[in-house]
Every structure is written in C-alpha cells, then in structure tokens.
Amino acid sequence: MEKKLSYEALEHRVKELEQRISTSDSESQVLKYFSIARVMFVALDTKGNITFINECSLETLGYRKEELIGQSWFKTCLPEQFQEDILSVYHQLMANEIEPVEYHENPVLRKDGTERIIAWHNAILKDSDGDIIGALSSGNDITDRKKIEAELKQAKEEWEQTFDAVPDLIMIIDNNHRIVRANKAMADRAGMTAEEMAGQPCYEIAHGTDKPPGFCPHTLLLKDHQHHFAEIREERMGGDFIVTVSPITILKDGLTGSVHVAHDITQRKKAEEILALNESRFRDISMSMADWIWEVDKDVRYIFSAGNSKKVLGYEKDELLGKTPFDFMPKEEVLAAKNRFMEIIKKEQPIIDLKNWNLRKDGTRVCLLTNGVPIFDGNGKFTGYRGVGKDITRELEIEEKLKRSLEITEKIIENVPIG
C-alpha cells in the first residue's frame, strides 16, 4: 500500500501529472498511478461530469466505477445544501472567469448517505491549444482528523473554562520563575490580565521583589522535583495563603516547571484568631470566677471542665472527665438527685437552680447550685448539657444559723412573762 503524501507533495504531483497528461507522455503509466494511489483522484469535464475516478475515491464514496462515470460530481457526490453554490463556482472556473483555488475542504456524500470531509488540491486541465477541458482534483479523507481536532478544541475550551473558574490563585511557572499562564482569579488579584502576566517573573508579580523569597516552594521544587507547600502571609496579594507547587514533567524534556496554587485562608486565619481570643477570654473569666463550668454528654458523663473545679470539689479537671455528677454525691443523695435530673433530661429542659449535695475529694460535704442548658447538634439532636455549678455551702450554713437564731429568739419571746 502506498504511503499518503503531504499536501505540498500532492500539489506538486498533481501539477507534474497534469503536465505529463497534456504532453501525452506515458499516459498509461499516469493512469495506472492514479488507479493504485492511496489518494483520491477525480477528473471532471467542463460540465462537472466525472470522466475518471480512482479506486481510493470509489472506496471512500462507496460506489462502483460504472455507477459514477458520466454522472455529475456535484449532484451525486456532494450534500444537497452545497451543490448549487459549488457548481456555480465550478462553471466560473471552466469559463476562466475566476482564478482556481488550489486547496479547499468540503464534505462529500457517500452512497449510504453518510458524509466524509475531504481536503482537496485542484488543477485545471487544458488541451494542447491551452483551452480548458476540465479539472483534476486529488484529495485526502480528513474526517477523523477533523473529529480529533474538534475534540481537542472542545477539551481545550473546557480546560480553560475550568482553569478560570477555580477560585484559587493558579499560575503555571517555568524553570526560570517566569509565568507561563495564570488563571482569572490570579490575574484579578494581581490587577492585571492573564496576557499581561505571561512571561513576567512570578516573584515580581506576587511579592514585588527582584528575586524569589527564601521560603519559595517553587525554588525547592526546582532542586528536588518534589511537591512542596508553605503557609505565607502576603500583603501584596491581600492576605494569608497555603501555597502548593506540583512538578510538571514532560517525558522527553524532564522537569519544565510547576503548577503553583495559592489557596486563600485569610478568613480562616481571622476566624482562628477570633476563636483563640475568645478562648483566652473564656479561660481568663472562668479562672477568675468562683463557679465551676462543666459539660456532660447524653449519658451524663463529664466531657469538659473549666474554672474552679479544684476549689469547688477538690478534683482536677482530668479527674472529673468520664465521670457522672452522681459519682461525687453521698449515697443517700444519689437516687433522689438522679430522678430529678433524669426527669429534666427526658423533657430536654434547662436546669434551673437545682441544689445537690456532693462530697469533696477530702470527704467534706459541699452543696452546689446547678444551672444548665441542653445542647443540640446541627440536626437538632440532643447531645448533652452545658452549665455552671456554684458552691452555696457557706450561704446555706449562714441561712441555717439565721434560722436557728430566729427560732431561739422566738422561744425566748414566748417565755418572757407579760405584765
């Protein structure tokens, strides 16, 4: 099977064959070449009727030779929507009214109704007197190539749309720290267009410096060809970022650069700072107050303790975690306290001024005034309670002393004789 020729070679061969035909030089050899060539050859008369067609053309079109010789090429082998316009141009060519187009692409219609796209090289045929007697065209079926080109174009467009739709700041950087491409988010943050950024040193755009900064992950990647990341704060880009770089390696060329992705974590960092500040405030407040702050899970086991648990119960917070409030109560208090607490939990109600006696680590008794609120997760499911325990032992002792003093006073008054 003969190898397909390039368009330039085809054009040269058509002209060569045209010359050989016009001088009747080895006409039979020329026709033999046309017949076996793995390139389409079609010859038309001045009316556009087929006078010669080779085997490659017949295979492409799905016809037998006798079905096409003498037939109109334009009405038989072109899709209907193209017939009139192309035939009109052909008539102008045959009348020598316009210059021939040496190369063009157009669909042809197969016998089974399907279409193929053919790339044509054309030559005008003339007799020995120089009069136009028809045309000779050679063509290559480029349908598959066109399909691949369309798929590649679509893939390229989809990739570009995805690249520009990503909110992260992305650059493709070469081995010399020059920007090959930047996405829309990066260009917008830099106040430039992607086209303006191309070819610029990345460190000038991102950092405003004349060389890469010491922490530059791209510099590290160039040394070891590995992935790297860094968390940086860059005022020029407007915040805090996690920067990752991934190597771009082409088999024949090796490392050609990296994909540089900067994920903006400015809001997260601000939230972390606020959270840390709030935690510090909470810790300072809880340590300065006399109360004990606690949290229990749905099984009434302590999962958090802060404040003055040591002062209130004599236990460190780690000694409380995993235990229940009932583990620290006198045995005679447990049943009643558990019943009261479970009734509240069952209804998922707040705990309001619940008095309960407990035993300190040293065995002494302490009365706590407990207040708390139920906790629910994002789906509204009950997960436990969070609240405060206040030592009211002293207040109860004073109250009891006042009560006794009042009783004694009342008895004295009752026993004082009148008159």
Name some characteristics of this structure.
419 residues; 5-stranded antiparallel sheet; alpha+beta; disordered N terminus; 15 strands; 16 helices; 42% helix
Commentary on this structure:
This protein is of the alpha+beta class and 419 residues long. Helix content is 42%, strand content 29%. It contains 16 helices and 15 strands. The protein has helices spanning 7-22, 27-36, 55-61, 65-68, 73-77, 80-94, 143-165, 184-190, 194-197, 202-207, 217-224, 266-288, 309-313, 317-320, 331-347, 393-415; strands spanning 40-44, 50-53, 103-109, 115-126, 132-141, 169-174, 179-182, 228-234, 239-250, 254-264, 292-297, 302-307, 351-359, 365-376, 382-391.
What is the β-strand count? 15
Major sheet size, sense and barrel closure: 5 strands, antiparallel
State the low-pLDDT regions, or none.
1-5, 21-26
Report the sheet-strand fraction.
25-35%
Shape, per Cα inertia axes: elongated
How confident overall, as mean pLDDT?
A: 86
Oligomer: single chain
Number of helices: 16
Order of strands across the biggest sheet?
2-1-5-4-3
Determine the N-to-C terminus distance.
147 Å
Integer-rounded radius of gyration: 46 Å
User: What fraction, in percent, of the residue positions are helical?
Assistant: 40-55%
Find the structural class using helix and strand composition: alpha+beta
Gist?
By secondary structure, the chain is an alpha+beta fold. Helix content is 42%, strand content 29%.
Helix and strand topology:
Elements (H helix, E strand, L loop, with lengths): L6 H16 L4 H10 L3 E5 L5 E4 L1 H7 L3 H4 L4 H5 L2 H15 L8 E7 L5 E12 L5 E10 L1 H23 L3 E6 L4 E4 L1 H7 L3 H4 L4 H6 L9 H8 L3 E7 L4 E12 L3 E11 L1 H23 L3 E6 L4 E6 L1 H5 L3 H4 L10 H17 L3 E9 L5 E12 L5 E10 L1 H23 L4
Antiparallel strand pairs: 1-2, 1-5, 3-4, 4-5, 6-7, 6-10, 8-9, 9-10, 11-12, 11-15, 13-14, 14-15
